[in-house]
Amino acid sequence: MSHEHAGAAAEPAEGATTVAPGHRGGDLPGEHALWEDRTRISLTPIAAPSILGLFGLAGAFMMVGAWQAGWYGNAATPLILWPFVLTFGGLAQFLAGMWAYRARDGLATAVHGMWGAFFLGWGFFFMLVSIAAVPVALVPTIGTLREGFAFWWVALAVISGLAALAALGANLMFSLLLACLAVGSGFTAAGYWTPSTWAVHVGGWLFVAGAVLALYVAAAMMMENTFGRTILPTFKTRVAGNVPGRRGTRPLEYRMGEPGVRIGQ
C-alpha cells in the first residue's frame, strides 16, 4: 500500500461544515457550530419601563390604599376611582410590564404584569358595578366576608413576596416596596376572609407606604435618565449606583443617532 498521501489532511465529507481553528464554536461538530458563528443579536435601547410602571402603581395605590385605610370616602368611592385605576394603574402599568420584556428585566415584567393585571381587573369589576351588571351583594365592601375577593389578595401576596426576595439581588428599595405590597396584600386577604375591618385598614396603610416607595424609586430612575448620573440612591447591588453624582449604568448609544439608538428623543 502506498503511503504517499499519509500526511495529507482528510477531505471533509460532503455536506459537512468546517470552522476555522480557534473560532468560537470550533470544537462543536457540524451545523450547530456554523449557526453559532454566523448568528448576530441586535439590541434596541429603550427607556426604563419601570418609570411608567412604578408611577402607575403609585398613583393607583395612593387612592385605593388611602380609601382602604379609611382616610376618606365611603363604600361608593371605588365607583369614582375605577377609571383612573383601570387606565393608569392597570393598562399603563401592564404595558410597562410588557416593555420590560424588551429591557430583559424579568423582575419588572413579573411585578408590573401582575399588578397591572390586578388593577385592570379591579377597575373592570367596579365598572360593572357602576352599570349594575354585578349584584350589590357581591361587592367587596370593607368589613364584609368576601372569600373570593380575599383569594385575589392571597395570590398577590405570595407573588409579591417572591418578587421581594428576588429584588434583593438588584435593588433594596424595590425589594422594600414589594415587601410592603406583599404584607399589605396578606392583611387585606385576612380582612376580607375573617372578616376584619382593622386588617383591611392595616393593608391600606401598607399600600400607601408602598406607593410612597414606588414614587421614590420611579423618581430616582427618571432623574438618573435625565441627569445621566445617580441623584437619588436606591441601594443597588452595584456600589457606584448608590453614590449621588456617580454613574450607576454605562449606556450603549450612538449620540448622533435617532431615538432608539441614542438615549432620549
How does this structure look, described?
With 265 residues, the chain is an all-alpha fold. It has one domain (49-238). 58% of the residues lie in helices and 0% in strands. It contains 7 helices and no strands. The chain has helices at 30-38, 49-68, 78-102, 106-130, 147-167, 172-193, 197-227. Helix 2 packs antiparallel against helix 7 (197-227) and helix 3 (78-102) packs antiparallel against helix 4 (106-130). The longest helix is centred in the C-terminal third of the chain and has 31 residues, at 197-227. The chain is globular, with a radius of gyration of 26 Å. Residues 1-22 are annotated as: Disordered. Residues 7-21 have a biased composition (Low complexity). InterPro entries: AceTr, Gpr1/Fun34/SatP-like. It is found in: Membrane. Belongs to the acetate uptake transporter (AceTr) (TC 2.A.96) family.
